[in-house]
Predict the 3D structure of the following.
Amino acid sequence: MVARTSTTAARCRARGLVVRDTDRFVMVMGPGTADPLKLEGLARAVWDALDRPQTGAEITAALADRHGVDVDALRADVEATLLMLEAAGIVVEPPIVVEAPIAVENPIAVESPIAVENS
């Protein structure tokens, strides 16, 4: 088994957070944080990217492209930011959603307890 890093593991925002969004920064408080975290700069950019589940590699590539920065130069900073957000409990692995049809092999016939008379 290969250990997943913040670059290869998908991450998303945790549930149950209190978030205050301003033009310059975001304040986030989760169930495991004693004080709100102020996210600005790169931390804000990573937070904004996590509006849907993404890997660190996807976030790094998007930010590098948007700001015209080399991916390799940005990778370590994005990974460190994801680890910090994870440690604070405000970023987690996305829940696994299984969408499979439910097969009914032996349907049970249900009879109505009320007798209906034909007139």
Confidence is low (pLDDT under 50) at residues 1-5. The first helix runs from residue 42 to 49.
